[in-house]
Amino acid sequence: TLKHYKVPKIEDMPSLGLPIENAKRAAAYLAVDENLDIFHHRIIGVGSGSTVIYVAERLGQYLKDEKFRDYVSQFICIATGFQSKQLIMDSGLQYGIIEQHPVIDIVFDGADEVDPNLQLIKGGGACLFQEKLISTSAKTFIVVADSSKRAPSKLGSHWRKGVPIEVVPPAYVRVRNDLLTKVNAKTAVLREGGKAKAGPIVTDNSNFIIDADFGEIEDPKTLYKEIKLMVGVVEAGIFVDNAAKAYFGNADGSVEILD
Ligand code: 5RP
């Protein structure tokens, strides 16, 4: 259930003048401020997308603060893809790999859609495999998003682009057919890049993405299992059971928290 509604006290929150950026920043800052245990956490997951930029920004601010510097400089930050690796390094934080740090204290990541039971659709940025790996390796998984990501009821009611599914390239036609015939996808489209449609998007793991639209999803857990069993599927962008809280920012700097 949606429990709290509060305006964060963020003295150093600059206004970009862009309402959507203010919303994302408010969610990210409050999520970090409320959940990061600077003195005890050490391995931090940094997800992907445009909201997580502000998570890295906030961590960078803590790093510069002399009260926290000694602790934050010891953090090892684990990325969910190329973009978040850049964010970590640009913020001056230490970068580490999950192979060396398989247990993560806390991860902050974005979402494309969040239902009232904290079930998520993710993968709008094509990073879903590493996002799944890192979020399921974390003791605490915190979602940061603007309030447009909140689905009032069922997943699929809101994010109209479908469920992102990462597939091994030679299997994409087979998986697309299986999605249409075995699990009743309305559409299953190979994600292509850029305006010029210069061929398929290639993930950080050298795979393709299929976006499959199911309309409103009645049972995300069952659908997830069915998709995962298809030959050629690496991961599906349905996340159930592991998000602890979601922070939804509004343009006025207020934040709704779902836990
Ligand atoms: C990338 C993701 C992102 O976290 C998701 O697309 C949300 O991004 P944004 O914060 O830009 O709305 O799942 O694969």
UniProtKB/TrEMBL annotation:
Gene Ontology BP term (one): D-ribose metabolic process
Membrane-spanning parts: none
One cellular component term from this protein's GO annotations in UniProt: cytoplasm
Top EC class, one word: isomerase
GO MF terms, alphabetically ordered: ribose-5-phosphate isomerase activity
Pathway annotation: Carbohydrate degradation; pentose phosphate pathway; D-ribose 5-phosphate from D-ribulose 5-phosphate (non-oxidative stage): step 1/1
Swiss-Prot/TrEMBL catalytic activity: aldehydo-D-ribose 5-phosphate = D-ribulose 5-phosphate
Isomerase among keywords: yes
EC nos: 5.3.1.6
Keyword vocabulary terms for this entry: Isomerase
Family statement drawn from the similarity comment of this UniProt entry: Belongs to the ribose 5-phosphate isomerase family.
Stated name of the protein: Ribose-5-phosphate isomerase
Lineage: Eukaryota, Fungi, Dikarya, Ascomycota, Saccharomycotina
Range within the parent protein: 78 to 336 of 347
